[in-house]
Amino acid sequence: MSGRPRAFLAQSGVASVLGIGVDEFEASLYAGRSGVRTDAGPATAGIADFDPREHLGKKGLRSLDRAARLLCVALNQILSDPVPPKSDDSDGLGLVCGTMLGGLDSIVSFDWSGLSDGVKYVNPGAFPNTVINSAVGQAAIRFGLTGVNSTLSAGASSGLYAMHYAAELIRMGGARLIMAGGVDELSDAALDAYTRMGLISPRGVVSPFANDRDGTAPGEGAAVCVLLAAEDASAVDDAAPVELAGWAATHDPCEPSGYDPQARGAAEAIRRALADAGIAAEDVACVVSSASGSPTGDAMEELALAEVFGGRLGEIPICCPKAAHGEAMGASGAFAALIGALALKRQELPPTRGASSTSLCLSDQPQSFEGKHALVTALSCGGENGALIQKIWTKN
Asked: What is the pLDDT of residues 49-65, one digit of tens each?
C-alpha cells in the first residue's frame, strides 16, 4: 500500500445480543456464550429486554425506532467516555454507518398504514424513519454531530464497507477523526423474509463451516468505532493501536439470495486487500470470518480462502463470531472489525461455538497466535465481497 496509513481504531461502542458495551461483548465472546435463541420459534439472535432508557434516559426516544436506538446506545458509550473524541475538523465530528435494511419496521408500518387506511391518515411524523439513512440522521440530531454523515447499504457487508469509507476519508485528508460502524434491527418483516427464503437453521444451531450446517439465525445490533489519523493515534494512550491497513471490495453478479459457487469475487477481494496492505498471504496470522452457517455461503468462503492460502489454510486460526451473535446484517461487518482488533491486541481469537470443521483451524476454545496481521471478511448473499487487513502498529 502506498501513502500514509489509512486509519487507526480507538474507542468503540457496542449494543449486541452478547452484551451492551465493549467489555461485556468481549467477555461474552471469549467465554463462548451464544445469543441464539429458539424458545420463541425460529432461531434468532435478538436482544431480549432491550431498554434504551437505561443508557440514554427517557427524553427524546419517542421519535427513534429500534435501529436508531441501537445505534444511539452504541454511540453514547463513546461520547460519554471520560475522554470523548474531539474533532479538529472545521465541520465537526462525523459518522459513517452501514445498514442492510435500516428501520424496516418503520418502513413497513408507514406503508401499511397508507395502504390500509389511505394516504390521508398516515402519520407524517413517522415518515423520517422510513429512509435508509434515518438511524444515522437521528443519531446526528441527538448528539449534535455536524461532520460527515453518510449511510452505506451493501447487504450483510455494509458495516465493513462503512469502516473502509471512513478510513479512506482520513487517508485522503478529508477528516482526521471520524466514527464508523454498522447497525440493523431484527424486525418482524426481516424475520419473515429470512423464514420465507429458507435461510434460518431448522435445528436452531449456527454451525459455520460444519458439514451439517443448515442455516443461520438472524440477529441485530450496532457497533461503532472511532477512527483516527496516524498523527493522532500516536498520541492516544494505547501501546499497540490497530491500523486498517488494506481493503478491497468486489461484486459477483448473482441472484439476490445467492453466492458465486466458484468464489471468484471473494478470492479476488482478499488478494487485493493483501496487496493493498503490502503483505503476502503468509503474513496473515488469523482470520475473522463472515461464515454464518449458510450451506452455500460458507462453502463459497472456504473455497475463496483455499484459493488464496492454499495448503497453509488448515494452519491459520479462524473464528466465526456469527455462531455467537447471529447474522446481525449491517452490524456484522463492524462487529468483525472490532473482534479482529481485540484478537490482535490479545494475540488470541475468540472461540467458535459448535466448531466441528475438520479441514479448517476452528476451535470451540480461544486460539492463541503470533503475528501482526488479521484478515476480516464480510461476504454477503447478493454478491458483495469485502476484505479488510488489520495490523498491530508499534509506536516509535
From this structure: 999 999 999 999 998 99
**Residue extents of the structural domains in the chain:** 8-392
d(CA 251, CA 381): 10
Hey, what's the cell of 116?
390500509
Looking at per-residue confidence, does 180 or 381 come out higher?
Answer: 180
Percent of the chain with pLDDT over 70: 96
Judged against a pLDDT cut of 90, whether residue 348 lies above it is answered with yes
Q: Which amino acid is at 22?
A: V
Q: Is the pLDDT of residue 340 over 70?
A: yes
**All cell numbers assigned to 11:** 474507542
Class level of CATH domain 8-392: alpha beta
200 vs 257: CA distance, rounded Å:
13
Q: Is residue 2 predicted with pLDDT exceeding 50?
A: no
pLDDT at 239: 60
User: Residue 395 pLDDT more than 70?
Assistant: no
Residue 338 phi, psi (nearest 5): -65, -40
CB 339 within 8 A of CB 319: yes
Closest CA to 375 of 296, 309, 297: 309
